[in-house]
Amino acid sequence: MTQEDFAEAYKQLNEAELQASKLEKMLDNLDAKMDEILKEAEDITKPSAETSEEVSQTPHKKD
After folding, report:
1. What does the alpha-carbon distance between residue 41 and residue 34 come to, in Å, rounded to a whole number?
2. pLDDT confidence bin for 46, thresholds 50/70/90
3. Under DSSP, is residue 61 helix (H, G, I), strand (E, B) or coil?
């Protein structure tokens, strides 16, 4: 391996590490967004304590 080959390999390694860091940051951001979406979906689908309380206190009509 010549000195030029070593220098090129080192340059490519540094570029690959930078790209890997960018991808990792993007994945972290995606993960955070997915967590936020899941939390919002859970909040939408589960009844709130106030709604549940209102339903349980509403008198039911008997026919």
Report:
1. 10
2. confident
3. coil
